[in-house]
Amino acid sequence: MKYLKKFENREEIEFGVTPEDIEYLFTDISDNGWMVDVRFLRKLFDYKHTDKPILKFALIPYMVVSISKPTSVEQRFSRSPWNEAQELQSFVESDEFKEIIEVASLRLDELGLYIEKQSYVNNTFNILIYRKTDQNYIK
């Protein structure tokens, strides 16, 4: 059983947090009717060694926080992707969203994490979160 427990808590071992902890940081966004999805992923990075021409790769864990508008089954065929994209963009540009991100950044800093990138992908807004210990490898 101890091996299964280690497998289930891989995220907590790597980051020191669970997906629920990260979702809690963005509770104000979900209270406004937006869907917040947290995923733990890994990305292959090349360690940059300037003194030796040796290639060395490693998987670096990161988190993706996706923010999108939930649509019910009845509305999926009659929805307008353009309107959803505009609504998401206006929410992301609002002062309320900027304040939420600022507070989340401070809390993540206490946990040894930081926000690397914020970007739009289709009708979602993604926030990439990395560990501070991996900051030198990500460029």
Cα-to-Cα separation, first versus last residue: 39 Å
Relative helix content: 25-40%
Number of strands: 4
What Rg do the Cα atoms give? 18 Å
Beta-strand fraction estimate: 25-35%
**Secondary structural class:** alpha+beta
Number of helices: 6
Summed over residues and divided by their number, the pLDDT gives a mean of 79
Explained architecture:
By secondary structure, this protein is α+β, with helices and mostly antiparallel strands. The protein has one domain (2-134). The chain has helices at 2-8, 10-15, 19-25, 27-31, 81-92, 95-110, and strands at residues 35-47, 56-68, 113-121, 124-131. It has a four-stranded antiparallel β-sheet with strand order 1-2-4-3. β1 (35-47) and β2 (56-68) form a beta hairpin. The radius of gyration is 18 Å and the shape is globular. The termini are far apart. The relative contact order is 0.17. The model has no long low-confidence stretch (mean pLDDT 79).
Per-chain topology:
Blueprint: H1 2-8, H2 10-15, H3 19-25, H4 27-31, E1 35-47, E2 56-68, H5 81-92, H6 95-110, E3 113-121, E4 124-131
Antiparallel strand pairs: 1-2, 2-4, 3-4
Defining key terms:
139 residues; alpha+beta; 4-stranded antiparallel sheet
Short description:
The chain has 139 residues and is α+β, with helices and mostly antiparallel strands. The chain contains six helices and four strands. It has one domain (2-134).
